[in-house]
Amino acid sequence: MRHRITSWGLAALCALVLGGVAKAQNVPEQFVVSGKAAEKIQDFTTINLATAERIAQVCEKAAATEGVQISIMVLDNAGNQVYMDRMDGQGYLNIATADMKARTALLNRGPSKNLMNRVIHEPAAELQLIQLGYFTNSGGLPIVVNKQMIGAVGVGGSAPHVPVWSDEICAHKALLEVIGPSVAPLVEDLPPAQNPNPGNAPVPRFATGTPPKSILPAEFVVSGKGAGNVFDGNQISLAAAKKAARVCRDWAASKGGAMSLYIIDNAGELVHMERMDGQVHNNILTAQLKAQTSLKTRQPTSINAAQLKNNPAGIPRSAAYFNLFTNSGGIPIVVDGQMIGAIGVGGGAGGGDENCAIEGLKAAFGEHVTLPVYPAAAGGR
To answer: What's the rounded Cα separation, in Å, for the pair 113 and 126?
Structure first.
């Protein structure tokens, strides 16, 4: 009898614990990966692509209304990149800080401004926070639904004008619109710490009055003020990158597959990134490595993949020395003979990573783009 009571007690305790877990993880499917895709990654609490994309779209629309450019990064709750955009005219620091802010919010499970405010109070604390991997600047927010953190968002690139505008305000507005009123209010802004030893060194101005020119159609590349910011009229535009990504995404879905995709500019900086639901870390990372490899080699990664099969003795050495990734799916984006970036697709994409990339590039650039051409004996691409 005692054994039966004990068993019932344990069962009741387990039910209570499991019930508490279920309640804590009761996130509406509209926000998270669900179904077979969630089963594949063994996680029903991670942000889905649709939600990440909507957050980015709302923030970018707010930035455009404000007349500024931003970079935005959305991470899942495991720290994988889910969706990223850099608006035209953003440079390395803007792009890198968006990712760093998102990771800080994820690690800290709170706004990155919390750590910035701590450093304002305790300047000596910043060294330890840096060593722990935190970026002590505002603009990173956790994405929380029903008390479950499903990811994090980081925004970088715009000058703050609190309380009207800042990177953090942009992210917060987006979360309120996409997630709803349950989003936590913004943390108080503290006045910045005063420099105890201000210097008088002159700061030079470095700007050009003439935007760089490009021979390519304006819809393909960064132009105007954006090009002037980065002194480059031959970087792929965000609009063109997103069009290529959308077509690749739809193509993969039509084949019953999924993909991860990176598009980088001709300086190797992120322009756009997305991973479809059900993709795991190696799918995401290989897409990035393919884009980087095709940019460095200025040729499709399928060339090295074929050479590896044809001459196994030669390619591993150069791949290791030059940090090349030899799986197909990476293609330099060459438009009217000018390289403006690179695309990398991983994850299988249902009908092949390189084919997915090709479909996206054809849709974005038409006959202007250079694509891999296979010998007839190889049976087409």
So the answer is: 13
